[in-house]
Design a protein that fits this description.
CATH topology: Beta-lactamase
Order of helices and strands: HEHEEEHHHHHHHHEEEHEHHEEEEEEH
EC number: 3.4.16.4
CATH superfamily: DD-peptidase/beta-lactamase superfamily
Keywords: Carboxypeptidase, Hydrolase, Membrane, Protease, Signal
Structural class: alpha+beta
Number of domains: 1
Number of strands: 14
Helix content: 25-40%
Strand order of the largest sheet: 1-3-2-14-13-12-11-10-9
Protein name: D-alanyl-D-alanine carboxypeptidase
CATH architecture: 3-Layer(aba) Sandwich
Largest sheet: 9 strands, mixed
InterPro entries: AmpC-like, Beta-lactam-related, Beta-lactam/transpept-like
Strand content: 15-25%
CATH class: Alpha Beta
GO molecular function: serine-type D-Ala-D-Ala carboxypeptidase activity
Length: 396
């Protein structure tokens, strides 16, 4: 007796047995590799790309923008990258260091002189490099941080004024540890660093990241905040799992991080543009555009401190290895040598970037679901893609 298989399962199986396809420009399609993850890990959508020596050699995007509806994603769809934005903020800081407008050892008191008198003495002495490496001594995100985020929206002015207010209020609290002594992942580090960048450059962080990073790199899909437009499903919606159901979030106040968190994690872009950003980093500054000096990029990538192993942290929060400035360094079973890595999540989306600088290899992964299941799926996919492409990448 013949039975009718669900259409979605049939399509997944059909894609899985299809031969490798290539785009007109020779780029390999990863759709057949990605499709099984949709059903096995219950992801609404999944996108991935691989770049070798500056060229995107493989990419794919499968699934739907909104769970329960057939709105196929494409390679041009915008996904949220969460805390993967931090490496971009650190790069902006590096630009200003190269220009002599900032120093790595500049203290918060020097960076924000009009706030200095009201800051805790310990906070006043924290250095820019310590903010960017989460070694400032500030406590991790806590209830007090959440309360201040809410109150920041009652302040007048543009986002830079709101960030300055946050720095002033949060900076009244004493440090949890001595600066430079321990790693503690805190979004407030990047809000303060963002406020310092804004002060030094004379523009908001949002203007700077668009003009000085997105545009020079040609990241045409890149933007900030909700990846979908208000009232539209013109990009993959973020999803959360609630009571066993996958719930979609339209653009709105609950669809993304508060916009004041920009320097810590509000960027979105297509998987192809995410791969271009990762490939630029994988090249170590040897390829254009010359955003920062190669030695500055090397410093951003260099491990500053070891991360104490922790369990139970939310996906997107570094838990093992070491931390540089906006980048983590991890040892994983599928690579003999440490990789640069970061993950980002606003709890409704998840993105990961993996870089092997020795091979000039970059892998980026994006899904529109937050949580541990999505995190496990992306890590398995990273291992699969690294195993497939690392050998062919060789060494520069």
């Amino acid at each position: 007796m013949l039975t009718r298989r669900p259409i979605a399962a049939y399509l997944v199986a059909l894609v899985a047995i299809a031969p490798a396809c290539h785009a007109a420009d020779g780029r390999e399609s990863l759709d057949a590799t990605l499709a099984p993850y949709l059903e096995r890990d219950k992801l609404p959508a999944l996108a991935a790309a691989v770049a070798v020596k500056g060229e995107v050699v493989a990419a794919g995007a499968v699934g739907t923008r909104r769970a329960g509806e057939k709105i196929p994603v494409t390679l041009d769809d915008r996904f949220h990258i969460g805390s993967d934005t931090k490496a971009m903020t650190a790069t902006l800081a590096g630009m200003l260091v190269d220009e002599g407008k900032l120093r790595w050892d500049s203290t918060v008191g020097e960076l924000l002189p009009d706030l200095a008198a009201g800051l805790d003495p310990g906070v006043r002495g924290v250095r820019l490099a310590q903010l960017l490496s989460h070694t400032s001594g500030l406590p991790g995100d806590d209830e007090a941080f959440g309360e201040l985020l809410g109150k920041s929206y009652l302040q007048e002015g543009n986002l830079d004024a709101m960030r300055t207010w946050l720095a002033k209020e949060y900076g009244k609290r004493p440090l949890a540890t001595k600066p430079g002594a321990k790693f503690a992942y805190a979004n407030m580090n990047y809000i303060i660093a963002g406020a310092a960048i804004e002060r030094a450059a004379g523009r908001t962080w949002e203007e700077l990241i668009r003009r000085r990073l997105f545009e020079p790199l040609g990241l045409r899909s890149a933007g900030l905040g909700n990846q979908a437009s208000l009232g539209l499903v013109d990009a993959p919606l973020g999803h959360e799992e609630r009571d066993g159901k996958v719930v979609a979030f339209l653009a709105g106040p609950n669809g993304d991080n508060p916009v004041v968190l920009g320097p810590a994690g509000t960027a979105h872009m297509s998987v192809l543009d995410f791969a271009r950003w990762a490939a630029w980093n994988a090249g170590g500054g040897r390829r254009g555009p010359a955003l920062v000096r190669p030695e500055t990029l090397a410093r951003l990538h260099a491990k500053v401190i070891d991360i104490p192993a922790r369990k139970g942290t939310a996906p997107g929060t570094p838990t093992i290895g070491g931390y540089a400035m906006g980048w983590g360094e991890v040892n994983v079973p599928f690579s003999r040598e440490p990789l640069l890595h970061h993950a980002g999540s606003n709890t409704k989306n998840l993105a990961q970037v993996w870089i092997d600088p020795r091979r000039d290899l970059a892998i980026v992964l994006m899904t529109n679901l937050g949580g541990d299941r999505a995190d496990d799926a992306l890590k398995k996919l990273a291992a699969e893609l690294y195993g497939r492409y690392a050998g062919s990448a060789g060494r520069p």
